[in-house]
Specification:
This protein is mostly helical and 525 residues long. It contains 22 helices and two strands.
C-alpha cells in the first residue's frame, strides 16, 4: 500500500500538486504565444518607430552627405511607393463594391450621417484651434523668426474663388485615365494692357493647368456613381460587381503582404528624417509655442473630443476600439499621408475591430479624401499664428471666415505630406493676410504634419465605427420588428380559431378522433 501510495505521489517533491502547476505554466505559455502571434505586426511596428529614432540619433553625428541620406531613406521610399501603388485600385474597387452592396435607402442614410459627422467634427476642430490660438497666443512676442535658416519656398497664392472652382472641377474629371495621375488647378498669367494715357497695366488672367497628383475626388465620385448604377442594373450588373469584389479582395491580400514590410520602412523613414533635421534648436526656440499649440490641439481633439463623440453615439469604449489601430497610426505618423495609410487602416479596422466590409470600404476612402480634422486644426492655428505675428487683431467676421474656409478647404486638401500648407494660403487670402510668412510654417511642417495625419485617420476610423454600430442596431431593430409581427400573426390565427364555429367543430372532431385513436390501437394490438 505504501509503495502504491508512493508511486501515486509522483514525480517530484511536491507530489500530485505538481501536475496542475505544470498545466498552468503550459497554459500561460500558450497564452503568451497566442498574444505575440495576434499582435506581432503591432509590436514590430512600434519597435520600428523606436529603432528609427535610435538610428537617426546615432547616424546624425556622422554628418552624412545628401546622397548618403537619400540612400538611407531608400527602404522607406520603397514603402511609400508600395502603399501609393495600391491606392488607386483600393479606392475605386472598394467604393464600387461598397456602393453596389448597399441598397439605395441605406446608402443615402449612411451617406447623410457620414457627411454630418465629417462636417461637424471638422467645425469642432477648427473652433478648438482658433480658441487655443487666442489662449496660448503662439505668435505674440516671437523673435528670430526671420533667420535665413527658417526661410523656404512659399506656395503661389491663389484666389479663394478659383480654389473652390477647382474643387468642383476636380469632382468631374474630363479624363478618367488622366485623373489617376493628374489634378486640375488654376494658374495665372500676367497680361499687359496699354491704356489711353500711355500707361501699361498688368492684368492677372486665370489659366487652367494639369499638375502631377492623383485626382482622388473625381475618382471617388465616379466610383460611387458607378456602384449605384450597377446596383440599378440588377442581374445584368452582377458580373461586374463580382469582378470589383474579387479585385478588391485581391488588393487586400496584396496589402496584407505589404504590411509586413511596414516596420522596416518606418524605421528608415523616421531615421532619415531625423538625420535631415537642421537647426532644430532655432526652430524649437522660435516656433516652440506654435508647435506646442498645434500638437496640443491635436491631442485634445484626437484624445478627448473624438472618443467622446464615439462613446456618446455607441456607448462603447473608444480607446479599446483605437487600440486595434496602432499599426495604421504608426504608418500615418511615419508617412504623413492619409492616402498611404488607407490600405492598412481598412485591413486593421476589419480584422481587429470587426467593422463590416461594406461600411469600412465605403466610408474610409471617402473619409481619407474629405475628412481632415487634423488639417483643419493645423490650418486654423497657422492662420491665427500669422495674424498675431503681423499684429493683426482678428474680428468676429474674420474668425467666422476662418472657420468656414478651413472646413471647406480641408475637403480638397491633398492627402499627401505638406498638402495642408497649400490650403493655408486660401484662408490667408480670404481674410487679407500676407502669404509670405508661410515659409515659417513650412519650416516646422514636418513636425506638426505627423500628428495632423494621425488625427485625420483617427477621425475616419471612429466615423466608420459609429456607422457600423448604427447599421448593426438598425438590423437588430428590424429583426425584432419581424419577430413581433410573427408573434402577432400567430396570436391572431389562434383567436380566429377559437371564435370560428366551423373551426371549433373541426377541432372537436379531430379531438374526438384523436381520443379514439389510442383505443383502436390498443384493440388492434
Amino acid at each position: 500500500m505504501e509503495a502504491a501510495r508512493d508511486g501515486k505521489g509522483g514525480s517530484g517533491p511536491n507530489g500530485h500538486a505538481e501536475g496542475p502547476v505544470a498545466e498552468r505554466g503550459a497554459g500561460r505559455l500558450r497564452g503568451c504565444r497566442g498574444f505575440l502571434r495576434r499582435n506581432a505586426l503591432v509590436l514590430l511596428t512600434v519597435s520600428g518607430v523606436a529603432a528609427g529614432v535610435a538610428l537617426g540619433t546615432a547616424v546624425r553625428g556622422a554628418e552624412l552627405s545628401p546622397a548618403q541620406v537619400a540612400y538611407l531613406a531608400f527602404p522607406g521610399e520603397l514603402l511609400l511607393r508600395m502603399l501609393r501603388m495600391v491606392i488607386l485600385p483600393l479606392v475605386v474597387c472598394s467604393l464600387v463594391s461598397g456602393a453596389a452592396s448597399l441598397d439605395t435607402r441605406s446608402l443615402g442614410r449612411l451617406g447623410g450621417i457620414a457627411v454630418a459627422y465629417f462636417l461637424g467634427t471638422t467645425l469642432l476642430a477648427s473652433g478648438l484651434a482658433v480658441a487655443l490660438g487666442f489662449i496660448i497666443r503662439p505668435g505674440a512676442g516671437a523673435s528670430g523668426l526671420n533667420a535665413p535658416s527658417l526661410t523656404g519656398a512659399v506656395p503661389t497664392s491663389k484666389e479663394t474663388v478659383d480654389s473652390f472652382l477647382d474643387l468642383i472641377r476636380n469632382l468631374f474629371p474630363a479624363n478618367l485615365v488622366a485623373a489617376a495621375f493628374q489634378t486640375y488647378t488654376t494658374d495665372y498669367r500676367m497680361l499687359s494692357r496699354n491704356t489711353t494715357s500711355g500707361n501699361i497695366t498688368w492684368e492677372k488672367i486665370p489659366v487652367g493647368t494639369e499638375v502631377e497628383g492623383m485626382n482622388i475626388l473625381g475618382l471617388v465620385l465616379f466610383a460611387l456613381v458607378l456602384g449605384v448604377a450597377l446596383k440599378k442594373l440588377g442581374q445584368e450588373g452582377e458580373d461586374l460587381i463580382r469582378f470589383f469584389n474579387s479585385f478588391n479582395e485581391a488588393t487586400m491580400v496584396v496589402v496584407s503582404w505589404i504590411m509586413w514590410y511596414v516596420p522596416i520602412g518606418i524605421m528608415f523613414l523616421i531615421g532619415s528624417k531625423i538625420v535631415e533635421m537642421e537647426d532644430i534648436v532655432v526652430l524649437v526656440t522660435s516656433l516652440g509655442k506654435y508647435i506646442f499649440a498645434s500638437i496640443l490641439g491635436h491631442f485634445i481633439h484626437g484624445g478627448i473630443i473624438l472618443p467622446l463623440i464615439y462613446f456618446a453615439s455607441t456607448r462603447q469604449n473608444p480607446y479599446r476600439f483605437l487600440l486595434g489601430l496602432i499599426t495604421p497610426f504608426a504608418t500615418a505618423f511615419a508617412t504623413c499621408s492619409s492616402s498611404a495609410t488607407l490600405p492598412s487602416m481598412i485591413k486593421c479596422i476589419e480584422e481587429n475591430n470587426g467593422v463590416d466590409k461594406r461600411i469600412s470600404r465605403f466610408i474610409l476612402p471617402i473619409g481619407a479624401t474629405v475628412n481632415m480634422d487634423g488639417a483643419a486644426i493645423f490650418q486654423c492655428m497657422a492662420t491665427v499664428f500669422i495674424a498675431q505675428l503681423n499684429n493683426v487683431d482678428l474680428n468676429a467676421g474674420q474668425i467666422f471666415t476662418i472657420l468656414v474656409t478651413a472646413t471647406a478647404s480641408s475637403v480638397g486638401a491633398a492627402g499627401i505630406p505638406a498638402g495642408g500648407v497649400l490650403t493655408i494660403a486660401i484662408i490667408l487670402e480670404a481674410i487679407g493676410l500676407p502669404t509670405n510668412d508661410l515659409s515659417l510654417i513650412l519650416a516646422v511642417d514636418w513636425i506638426v504634419d505627423r500628428t495632423t495625419t494621425v488625427v485625420n485617420v483617427e477621425g475616419d476610423a471612429l466615423g466608420a465605427g459609429i456607422l457600423n454600430y448604427l447599421n448593426e442596431k438598425e438590423k437588430k431593430d428590424k429583426e425584432q420588428e419581424l419577430k413581433e409581427v410573427n408573434v402577432e400573426a400567430v396570436a391572431n390565427s389562434k383567436s380566429e380559431a377559437e371564435t370560428s364555429p366551423l373551426v371549433t367543430h373541426k377541432n372537436q372532431v379531430s379531438n374526438t378522433s384523436s381520443t379514439a385513436d389510442p383505443e383502436s390501437k390498443e384493440s388492434v394490438l
